[in-house]
Amino acid sequence: MQIWVDADACPKVIKEILYRAAERVELPLILVSNQYLPTPPSRFIRSVQVESGFDVADNYIVAQLDEGDLVITADIPLAAEVIEAKAHAINPRGERYTVNNIRQRLNMRDFMDQIRSSGVHTGGPPPMNQADRQQFANALDSLLRQIMPKQ
């Protein structure tokens, strides 16, 4: 099992939580982005730089993904592909994507895109706060306990 991170838009504080988790549970953590990302020295943590372009990092993750892996992403179409590949996905706010909610998330995303394309300014998500960071850390720990092979 590996942890993949759609790292271009992943907040730094979330990456730091992931670094600590990878060391603690001794799982490979791979950050994928289209720019150079420094990572702490660790045998469990590495970054992969892909070419710039639409969905290049997403496509790389999907191509490398194994069933049961975990992906951290706010990208709902990527999360849908992850779920289809029988892997796990959570967003940087700790919300888990599942077969039961991914279709609804895709529909809402498409609806909001349609509203924005008609000229309505919808704003973005609120800035991450301490509660969001704690929610992510709790969700990550819970999911790792659930999906990690028993040793």
TrEMBL record:
Protein name per Swiss-Prot or TrEMBL: UPF0178 protein DU002_08385
Species whose genome carries this gene: Corallincola holothuriorum
PANTHER family in alphabetical order: UPF0178 PROTEIN YAII
InterPro entries (alphabetical): UPF0178 (IPR003791)
One Pfam family, short name: DUF188
UniProt record similarity statement: Belongs to the UPF0178 family.
Region forming the signal peptide: none
